[in-house]
UniProtKB/TrEMBL annotation:
NCBIfam families: HTH_metalloreg. The keyword Transcription applies. Signal peptide: none annotated. This is Winged helix-turn-helix transcriptional regulator. InterPro entries: ArsR-like_HTH, HTH_ArsR_DNA-bd_dom, HTH_MetalResp_TranReg, WH-like_DNA-bd_sf, WH_DNA-bd_sf. Keywords: DNA-binding, Transcription, Transcription regulation. It comes from the Bacteria. The keyword Transcription applies. It holds the Pfam family HTH_5. One of its GO terms (molecular function) is DNA binding. Residues 270-364 form the HTH arsR-type domain.
Length: 370
């Protein structure tokens, strides 16, 4: 049920840590972010190129460390909204560190249990897979190694990172400790490198303190769907990685990392994102098998074997279709007696159909008047 009295909370406690992580992502994926900026029709401030030059002079930031912890799980063509998934960002979840500063986060990561690290990594992998029922699924993979093997094999991520993830899952504490030790080693250098950008963060948080509630709501509803706004609190933290938005949800809280200057282009960006969602929706409907699956699920919940029998398709084919449909948010799932039942996400359908109608609203009104 959607809460009407949503409260807005703005804090920059986590920003210093997150900006350092983002800076290392920027260093590792310099070409991607430059191309992304050009694609979006935006220009990076000169201070960001100074940041890159300063980061490149930190000899402790060797390619082995950057490749292992900050290499993208997915090919660049599969990255959405400039949010790159890498090993470093799977160790923690924003709700766990939102109120902490850099050193408190290092202490937290150093003390966290291996099971909690595994759970965080798995939740990121399950999100990539498109399964939104993370609580049940996470426990399943924690308890069943064969299920974990299947998850890794089926994920659309680079093979080398499947192997890295497998190694880390066996001994997560070792790799988190190495990660924290490296961050502490280069922390002073990172402070010097991002010094010229701090003024942007200060300006940005002052702007955020005066924003209208509609601003983050618009971003959240466009990128995640209006149904995602069922919450009591929207927690915002500023980041220096420009023109990006990172959204996480935990119980009745939504956490939104808003990149510096995202307000300058968010209308254009969100319009493009909304159109892309609608186009993806229409592409899915144009696929005969997926369309038939959605028709079946509009009547009742069904498990994979039932759908396969109805449509005369293999279980492997159905699994492929379901991963795509759940990733797009059109289908959700629930487990009952060791079976995974799929059902239509009606609120997502309504949102997309209303968005589609909205694009032709003026034409429909004109036709009605005539």
């Amino acid at each position: 049920m959607r809460c009407l009295d949503v409260k807005l909370v703005i804090s920059d406690s986590v920003s210093d840590f997150f900006d350092k992580i983002s800076s290392l992502l920027f260093l590792k994926h310099e070409g991607f972010f430059k191309d992304y900026s050009i694609k979006m029709g935006i220009k990076l401030d000169n201070e960001y190129f100074v940041l890159l030059d300063d980061l490149k002079r930190i000899k402790e930031l060797d390619s082995e460390f950057l490749n292992f912890y900050f290499g993208s799980f997915c090919d660049y063509k599969d990255v959405r909204n400039a949010n790159i998934f890498c090993l470093a960002t799977t160790f923690f979840k924003i709700p766990q560190i939102y109120t902490k500063d850099f050193f408190e986060i290092i202490d937290y990561l150093s003390a966290v249990t291996e099971e909690e690290i595994r759970k965080n990594i798995l939740e990121s992998l399950i999100y990539l897979q498109g399964d939104l029922k993370t609580e049940t699924s996470t426990q399943q993979y924690l308890n069943d190694r064969e299920s974990l093997f299947d998850l890794l094999n089926n994920l659309n991520i680079k093979p080398e990172y499947k192997w890295i993830i497998f190694k880390v899952m066996k001994s997560p504490k070792t790799y988190v400790d190495q990660f924290c030790n490296k961050l502490m080693l280069v922390n002073g250098y990172l402070n010097e490198a991002i010094y010229n950008l701090i003024k942007f963060r200060d300006e940005w948080i002052n702007q955020l303190k005066n924003i209208n509630m509609d601003f983050p709501k618009k971003i959240i509803s466009t990128l995640k769907g209006k149904e995602y706004l069922s919450c009591n609190y929207i927690n915002i933290y500023p980041t220096l990685l420009p023109y990006t938005a990172t959204i996480t949800k935990s119980e009745d809280n939504i956490y939104v990392g808003l990149g510096y200057k995202v307000d300058e282009i968010f209308e254009n960006t969100l319009e493009k994102a909304e159109i892309n969602h609608i186009i993806d929706f229409l592409k899915l409907l144009s696929d005969k098998s997926k369309f038939k699956i959605l028709i079946l699920l509009s009547h009742k919940k069904m498990y994979a074997n039932e759908i396969a029998e109805q449509l005369n398709l293999t279980n492997a084919t159905i699994s492929h279709h379901m991963r795509i449909l759940t990733l797009q948010g059109l289908v959700e799932s629930t487990r009952n007696q060791n079976k995974t039942y799929y059902y239509l996400n009606s609120s997502k359908f309504h949102s997309l159909l209303n968005g589609l109608l909205g694009k032709f609203k003026s034409a429909l009104i004109l036709e009605k008047e005539e």
